[in-house]
Amino acid sequence: MLRVRDGDAVAFEELVALWQDRLVTLFRHHTGDHAIAEDLAQEVFLRVYRARATYQPTAKFTTWIHTIANHVSSDLRQRAYRRRERGVPQNVSASTSALGLEHLAVAASGLRPARIADRDELRAVVQEAIAGLSDNQRMAVLLAKFEHCSYEEIAKAMGLTVPAVKSLLFRARDQLRERLEPYEREGSR
Q1: 34 lies in which domain range?
Q2: Which 8-state DSSP code applies to residue 140?
Q3: Residue 117 predicted with pLDDT over 70
Q4: Is 81 exposed, middle or buried (0-12, 13-18, 19+ CB in 10 A)?
Q5: Number of domains in the chain
Q6: Fewer CB atoms < 10 Å away: N or C end of the chain?
Q7: Tens digits of per-residue pLDDT, 77-96?
Q8: How many angstroms separate the CA atoms of 186 and 189, rounded?
Q9: CATH number assigned to the domain comprising residue 135
Q10: Taking the CA atoms of the chain, what radius of gyration do you get in angstroms?
């Protein structure tokens, strides 16, 4: 990023190549729509480019870019609220995202029709549970689980305190556990 700040166009291309897939994945999990995720990732890069001259490495670059991503996500929610979009589920983001369920469903017999049906059902149940999380809880979970951010990094990216992040994650995990517990019991029979 220091090279980008100094006007190195090749460095910016490298930065985009390094971060494009990660940001698209993050936003896809947050919005549930690949096209919107790509647009949001481009918005992040646009903001990075616009802020390049004033960039100061006071924090890790990952924290800085996640902060920008959080602001872009927040702006999207604000625009949707102002337009008062109808017919869109309140938490559309998790309703169509897999959130790594392939890792949960992979088994040696994973291609059997019964296994595929079970995996699809589990994916739908987990997606519905995640859709019930607040936007902040969902973003905190995504940063923790998919971006492997520390509490401190999440706090900086979301403009929160570390205790607030811990509380968000605790409540999110508790809600997910509560919503998924009936299915867990059913699956252990």
Answers
A1: 2-187
A2: H
A3: no
A4: exposed
A5: 1
A6: C
A7: 777 666 554 444 444 444 43
A8: 6
A9: 1.20.140.160
A10: 18
